[in-house]
Amino acid sequence: MQKRLVLDQTQINITISRFCYQLIENHDNFENTVLLGLQPRGSLVLDRIIERIKEISSVAVPFGYLDATFHRDDFRRRELPLRANETRIDFLIENKNVVLVDDVLYKGRSVRAAMDAMIAFGRPKKVELMVLIDRKYTRDFPIKPDYFGRQVNTLESQYVSVEWKSQGFEEDAIWITEKAPKK
């Protein structure tokens, strides 16, 4: 299988730091802003962002993890049922600025589902999207990120793989690979 490196560990660290500085600049001490990591993979990115913001500033950023499994439009269209992840949000988002964090923006369906799932916690004032990788030209919905690490042009036959050292990989890296052919 052919793999093409998109971001290596150093580049991912630089991107996470850039995200943090952008958030600090755009959201005054996070007084009216919360960060939500989309489960499962966005929560891994969010954890790194929260950790880095703590290193940069002394501000405690309200954050949580949002699962949108049951809000997806393809929930009942799969051969095997999707497994839900935990939603952990211990605050209301009513009239707050919400930054949704995910690893890869592909079709936009997860983000659309997350917007539906968020309503259970109140109506946000504003929603922004932060992703490590923006797969351009593949949207099913008119959604675009406010913050992104890298934009890539990909084919339907390709997959963006985000590997984290904390999950047993040799180092943090983001790759474009060919999808396995369907049997």
From TrEMBL:
Its EC number is 2.4.2.9. SUPFAM superfamilies: PRTase-like (SSF53271). Keywords: Glycosyltransferase, Transferase. It comes from the Bacteria. GO terms for molecular function: uracil phosphoribosyltransferase activity. Residues 8-165 form the Phosphoribosyltransferase domain. It is an enzyme of class 2 (transferase). NCBIfam families: PRK05205.1-5. This is Uracil phosphoribosyltransferase.
